[in-house]
Design a protein that fits this description.
Radius of gyration: 28 Å
Domain Tyr recombinase: 192-399
Number of strands: 8
Shape: globular
Number of domains: 2
CATH superfamily of the largest domain: Intergrase catalytic core
GO molecular function, one term: DNA binding
Strand content: 5-15%
Region (Disordered): 401-428
GO biological process, one term: DNA integration
Strand order of the largest sheet: 1-2-3
Structural class: mainly alpha
CATH class of the largest domain: Mainly Alpha
Distance between the termini: 101 Å
Helix content: 40-55%
Organism: Ancylobacter pratisalsi
C-alpha cells in the first residue's frame, strides 16, 4: 500500500457545476490583510496527467514560500539588495529593471522564477563572502536530492539561477559576486543523461496514420514537419505567450497571444521561411525549407483543402492553435495508438529527423544549417542519436581501408615475384 502523500500547503479544491474539480492555492487571511497578492491562484490540473499532483505541489510550495517571505518583512525587505546574502543578489537579479532576467523568453523565465524560490528557501540566508566551492557542491547535491535517481535537471536549473544572479551582481559591482562566480566557473557538476530516443521514419508514418484515425490531422502534419524539416516542436506547432512578448500576433486570448508558423509563411514555390523562437532575439537565424521535396509534408498538405489554408499552420480539430497541454495530451494518445512507447516524447521527433538524415549520408554541416544550429556540436552531440550507426560507419571505413591496404600489399608482392631472376644470384 502506497504511503499517503501530505497535502500541499494552501491547496483548496473547488467544484464547478459540470462536476469538474479545480485546484487553487489560497493565501492565509492574515497575509492578505498585510497586502500579500495573489490572494488566490488557480493551479494547472489535468486529470489525465499522472504527474499533476507533483505540479500542484510544486506551485503550492512556491507560492507558500513567497507568502512566508512577505510576512517576514514585506516585499521591500525581500527585494533589498544591500545585505550581501544569496537572497539579496537573487532578488536584485529578478527585480532590477535592467536585469537580463527580463529579456529571457517566458519559457525560461517561469522556471527561473520557480527555482529562484527554491534557492532562496534553501541557502538564501548565506552571506556571499562566506561561501566557497565546497558549499556550492553540497547545495547542488541537496537540490538534486538523495534518491537513487537524482533530479539533476532541477539542480542544474538552481545552479543556473545562482550563476546568472552572480553575473548580474558583477555587472552591478556587488561585493564578493565576482569571486564566487569565478569559483563556480572552474567547478564541474553532473548533467542529466542526454536523451537517446529518436523515432524512425516508419514510426512517424505510424503516428501520422493514428493521428488521422483519432481526428487530429494537425498533429499528423506537425509530426511530418518536425521530422523532415528538423525544427523544434514549438517552432512547428506554435505557442501561446504572454501579451508582453514583443513578437507580433493577431490571435489573442485573455492574457496570452499565439505566435507560430502560418500558411502565409509558405510562398508560391512551397518555400517556408521563419525565425526559430530560440534564436530570434540572439543570432536571428532565419530558416528556409523547401516543402516540395519533403514527401511526408507534401502528403499531409495535399489533404488540407485550399480554403482551410489560412491562419496557423497547425490547428486542433476545432481549427484553433493547440496550447502545450492539449497538444501533449493528444500526442500521447495518438502515440500509444500507434504502438509508440511513452518514453518517446513529441519533441524527440526532431532528433529522429536529424538522426535519419545522418544515417542517409547527409553532412553534419548541411544538417546544422537546416536545423538552424549555429554550432555543429549541438547537432552532433545532442540531436544526432545514431551512436550505433556512427560506430558502423567507422567500422566500414576501417574495413575499406584495410581492404585497400591488402590489395596494395598483394600487388607489391606480385611485382616483386616478377622482378626476381629465376637463375638466382650470380656466382663469384
Amino acid at each position: 500500500m502506497s504511503e499517503k502523500r501530505p497535502k500541499p500547503p494552501g491547496l483548496k479544491w473547488r467544484s464547478r457545476k459540470s462536476g469538474e474539480r479545480v485546484a487553487y492555492w489560497v493565501a492565509r487571511p492574515d497575509a492578505v490583510k498585510q497586502g500579500f497578492r495573489p490572494a488566490t491562484q488557480r493551479l494547472p490540473y489535468d486529470p489525465d496527467d499522472p504527474g499533476h499532483l507533483d505540479k500542484i505541489s510544486f506551485e503550492c510550495g512556491r507560492l507558500q514560500a513567497q507568502m512566508m517571505a512577505f510576512q517576514h518583512g514585506g516585499w521591500e525587505r525581500m527585494k533589498r539588495p544591500e545585505d550581501g546574502t544569496v537572497r539579496s543578489i537573487i532578488n536584485l537579479y529578478l527585480h532590477d529593471e535592467e536585469s537580463p532576467f527580463h529579456r529571457l523568453k517566458h519559457t525560461t523565465r517561469r522556471p527561473y522564477e520557480c527555482y529562484a524560490v527554491v534557492v532562496i528557501d534553501t541557502v538564501g540566508s548565506r552571506e556571499l563572502g562566506s561561501i566557497d566551492g565546497r558549499d556550492v557542491r553540497r547545495w547542488f547535491n541537496g537540490w538534486a536530492g538523495a534518491e537513487e535517481t537524482p533530479k539533476l535537471a532541477r539542480a542544474q536549473t538552481c545552479l543556473a539561477v545562482l550563476k546568472s544572479a552572480l553575473s548580474f551582481g558583477v555587472m552591478c559591482r556587488r561585493k564578493h559576486c565576482a569571486e564566487l562566480r569565478e569559483i563556480i566557473s572552474v567547478m564541474r557538476f553532473p548533467h542529466p543523461a542526454p536523451r537517446k530516443m529518436a523515432p524512425s521514419r516508419a514510426q512517424i508514418v505510424g503516428i501520422r496514420k493514428a493521428a488521422h484515425e483519432n481526428g487530429h490531422p494537425g498533429i499528423a502534419l506537425a509530426a511530418a514537419l518536425q521530422f523532415e524539416t528538423m525544427q523544434r516542436l514549438w517552432d512547428v506547432v506554435g505557442q501561446w505567450v504572454p501579451l508582453a512578448d514583443p513578437t507580433p500576433s493577431a490571435r489573442i486570448a485573455g492574457r496570452h497571444k499565439w505566435v507560430g508558423p502560418q500558411w502565409s509563411d509558405i510562398d508560391q514555390n512551397m518555400i517556408l521561411r521563419w525565425k526559430p523562437t530560440k534564436t530570434s532575439n540572439t543570432t536571428g537565424v532565419e530558416i528556409e525549407v523547401d516543402l516540395s521535396v519533403c514527401r511526408m509534408v507534401a502528403e499531409e498538405m495535399a489533404l488540407v483543402p485550399q480554403e482551410q489554408r489560412v491562419g496557423p499552420l497547425i490547428v486542433d480539430p476545432k481549427g484553433r492553435p493547440y496550447d502545450a497541454k492539449r497538444y501533449q495530451r493528444a500526442f500521447r494518445e495518438i502515440a500509444r495508438a500507434a504502438g509508440i512507447p511513452d518514453a518517446l516524447w513529441s519533441r524527440d521527433i526532431r532528433a529522429g529527423g536529424i538522426t535519419d538524415a545522418r544515417m542517409n549520408g547527409a553532412l553534419i554541416d548541411d544538417i546544422a544549417k537546416a536545423a538552424g544550429h549555429t554550432d555543429q556540436r549541438t547537432t552532433s552531440n545532442i540531436y544526432n542519436r545514431d551512436a550505433l550507426g556512427a560506430h558502423r560507419r567507422i567500422a566500414e571505413l576501417r574495413r575499406s581501408t584495410m581492404q585497400c591496404e591488402s590489395h596494395t600489399d598483394d600487388r607489391v608482392a606480385r611485382g616483386n615475384e616478377l622482378n626476381e631472376d629465376p637463375a638466382g644470384p650470380p656466382h663469384h
